[in-house]
Design brief:
The chain has 565 residues and is α+β, with helices and mostly antiparallel strands. It folds into 2 domains: 181 residues, no CATH class; 270 residues, no CATH class. Helices cover 39% and strands 25% of the residues. It contains 20 helices and 19 strands. A hairpin with a 2-residue loop joins strand 2 and strand 3. Helix 17 packs across helix 19. It is globular. The N and C termini lie far apart (74 Å). The C terminus is likely disordered.
Amino acid sequence: MKALRRLLTVLSLLLLSAVGFVWLNRSVRVDMAGYVPADSLVYIEFNSLTDLAKTIEQNETWKSVATAIGSDSKLIDPFWITMARTGVAPVRSVAFARAQMAVVLVGVNSIQEGDTLKIRPEVALVVETHTANWRIRSSAIEAVKTLSNYAYGQSNCSERTAEAYFVECSSSTTGRKLVGAIDGTVVIVANSDNAVRACLDVRSGFRPSLRTDVELARVRDQVRADGALSFGYVSSANVAKIFSWAAPLLMGKAPGDTQLEELLARSAGKILKAIAWTSRASSGTVEDRYLFTLDADVLQRLQPAFTTTSVSTDEIWKYVPATVEQLTFYEFNDALAALTAMNSAVASKLDAVSSIMFSSLLRSSLSVYGIDKPGDILPLLSSPLVTLRAHSTDESSVLLARTIDQNRLRHALQSQVVEGGLQIVDGVNSSDIGNQQFSAVLLDGYVVIGKSESIRSWLDAIRSNEGNARPSRFKQWQPAGGSVTVTYANDQSRVNSFVSAVAAMRGKPLSPEQTTVVADKTKDCSSLTESKLNGSGIERLTRSSFGQLSTLLALVQSDTTQRRR
């Protein structure tokens, strides 16, 4: 009996020791917003890498491609992930099972190179490994070096110790660099010293963190961020700032006009509020949901712009070529009323000068199709209006719509005064597209209008499949209904980049033969995006194979990899 009691005592002590070890080594989820600067322009968080891996494993496109190239579609082993979470596993497995990540756009630099103004973002990746510094340091250093070699090609790296342990890698050809800092259980990797310093200052308490932003918590609740694969956020102040940089490009102006950017930022701040994004797995695909919150008065005035039509779009597909790269249905009940409502909503919040500028920006969205007098043209078009790009090589899209009165439309088009001229031709068999900048093709109850080179491209494509139904790559998606815009897009390129990046990260880069197989298996990959108005602002839902996760992962795609292909 004494021997049995001793054995039971030993076993109990071992069990208690094991439980104590697991307890002491457990990881507690943190709010990654507390690790990044409060003034970060864009914030994206991923709280579970294992959930991301599971989503990829269960993805129908991934399983199909993996089978085709003879690769294992399984990325993780549930048993070893459980073991890794307890700390009883190699350090890389432990870090992968426990890690939380945040990607932040800290700032944007503009650099003048000759006559070109180049925009260079400062981006930081912050990883809470939940793993002791002594265990994680060597693996983190190696990871930074590997990432630099992958992203920039052969790199020269150096290490130093200061308030954190630093590793800096520079490309031997382009001079671009990657800076890593290991501080406690946290690893920070950025493309500039400033970005790393900003995140370290937050950890030291010298700068406020994004967690202090009260708007962040409200928006998180609105988009139900808990349980999402990822969550993204742009504050109201930074939405206005980013808009002030992007709007001049939409208006055909070069960036860098400080006075114009300040005016746009002030104006946008009165209309646009925070932007949020979540990503979730859904039936073997990924759903990205975006919320663009708006000022309450603007939201109310926009209601007429988001009144939709119930007219069938089936007949329109016969004028959509099988080669189409992207097309959007604008299902306004009244296109002119929608344009007027948007103009009125903006004007209600702005001064006269700013109002005129935004009105000009709205009109420019139609001037790219050769329409300089929307008030004369839009009443003669019946919803839905469709914009489409026939080929990936086309620089611009064309506008397709039903006509209410074709004779009146012809006369109205003839009165348009657009730079470079506008010509009108009849039927898809027209071959006399001249040198005018814009052309309009009048069909049986329809019109197609846009830049002449894009019209030529559309004519060439439509002649080869006139009368066809919806292209096969878009048949997998069915709009939910009630959306003011519905966009179909070819997603093959993004999916290919994602598969290539995942293969490289697994240490098995795709061979040229495998790349060809992947391209064939993904030729019908596409996405569907729907937009509507809700109680907070404009909501957009995108369904695709891998969602924005594929865009983010492909950003680190090696420059040298692209050149080798």
